[in-house]
Design brief:
single chain, 194 residues, mainly alpha, 88% helix
């Protein structure tokens, strides 16, 4: 039996180096995924802040002197975007807390916690934000109708509704990409743990 000891030690060393290579791959993949999540979240926050800035500029330049309906519509659109930006920024803080250098079980727990937070944002707050913003657009168009020509009103309806649909599409697309990355990271972590 002593003749098998060198073979067993060679086998054990190969097994360890393979798992170390696998761990390195998982670690690099997790780093890349986190980088991608952060970059995508920056883009989402940037688009939301740009839209919010345009609406706020319009409000302070023209809207504050308009009818109560115009003020209400702009307030609804601006407040829905402010809420969304705040949610994204707090989520960004949660994303920064994901440390790939934690133990595997702690890393999985942190990913699951982040996933739960993002699910809550996308399943509870996002539909309300869509509705508030959509209501704001409808009221905005109603408030503008008496002051603009029919052709310009139709243009405003098309662009307003188009922007609202684009707004929904951007958020849903970023959510799907984020969800796929987080699920992949969670799966890699579980594979590393087993």
């Amino acid at each position: 039996m002593e003749s098998f000891d060198p073979i067993q030690s060679i086998y054990n060393s190969q097994r360890t180096s393979t798992s170390e290579l696998s761990a390195d791959r998982v670690l690099n993949s997790a780093k890349n995924s986190l980088r991608k999540l952060k970059r995508d979240q920056y883009w989402t926050i940037g688009i939301l802040i740009l839209t919010l800035s345009i609406l706020a500029l319009y409000f302070f330049k023209y809207g504050q002197f308009g009818t109560p309906l115009l003020i209400l519509s702009l307030t609804l659109m601006i407040s829905s975007l402010v809420i969304r930006v705040i949610l994204e920024l707090t989520s960004r803080i949660g994303l920064n807390r994901l440390e790939i250098y934690l133990s595997t079980t702690e890393f999985i727990k942190s990913i699951q916690s982040y996933l739960f937070q993002r699910k809550r944002i996308h399943w509870i707050f996002t539909p309300m934000i869509y509705l508030i913003y959509g209501l704001g657009i409808v009221l905005f168009l109603i408030a503008l109708k008496p002051y603009i020509s029919l052709a310009f009103f139709i243009y405003c309806v098309i662009t307003g509704v188009g922007f609202w649909i684009g707004f929904i599409w951007v958020i849903r697309k970023s959510y799907r990409k984020e969800w796929e990355l987080l699920k992949a990271m969670e799966k890699m972590s579980e594979n590393l743990n087993s």
